[in-house]
Design goal:
56% of the residues lie in helices and 12% in strands. The protein has helices at 2-33, 68-79, 84-97, 110-123, 132-136, 140-145, 151-154, and strands at 36-42, 49-54, 57-61. It has a 3-stranded antiparallel sheet with strand order 1-2-3, with helices on one face.
Length: 155
């Protein structure tokens, strides 16, 4: 198990190194695409990314993250149940008002607060579990064939 964890960490480190080379061209491509504002490259984060707002909504764009689309769909599926979305937004606002949603400062990220709410709701039986493989058609083959963003693909 330790060997697998070390190999996974090494793969993540190699991906982060590749992403560092892509974030500036990605930022330039997003600016040219239109609709994005307040672009900020965060090159030296554990996972390099571009922070931006898109039509007034704060977004983080992470190159090379093959699971991001599936993850977003999963969050949407859970947040479509009952009042889950409102509860997640309430927790994020609560944390933000108290300055507790700044991961670079050692606090949980806004995303982590969302996952915490989802976990609580699942454990308490408030939400029905979503079968990700059946609902979104994901499999190891789907993930292997998904397209990663590279500096070549964005110019």
């Amino acid at each position: 198990a330790v060997d697998a964890a070390v190999r996974a960490r090494e793969r993540a480190d190699r991906l982060a190194d590749k992403c560092k080379k892509v974030v500036y061209p990605l930022s330039k491509a997003l600016r040219a695409a239109g609709g994005f504002a307040d672009l900020e490259v965060v090159r030296h984060a554990r996972v390099p990314l571009v922070k931006a707002s898109f039509r007034g909504v704060a977004v983080d764009v992470v190159p090379g993250n093959d699971l991001a689309v599936v993850n977003s769909r999963l969050l949407r599926a859970y947040c479509g149940q009952r009042d889950c979305r409102r509860l997640c937004l309430l927790a994020k606002r609560w944390a933000g008002a108290r300055g507790l949603n700044r991961a670079p400062d050692g606090f949980l990220s806004s995303y982590a607060h969302t996952l915490t709410v989802l976990h609580f709701c699942l454990v308490e039986g408030v939400l029905a579990r979503v079968d990700i493989d059946r609902r979104f058609g994901t499999s190891d083959q789907t993930l292997k064939s998904s397209r990663s963003v590279t500096s070549e693909s964005i110019g």
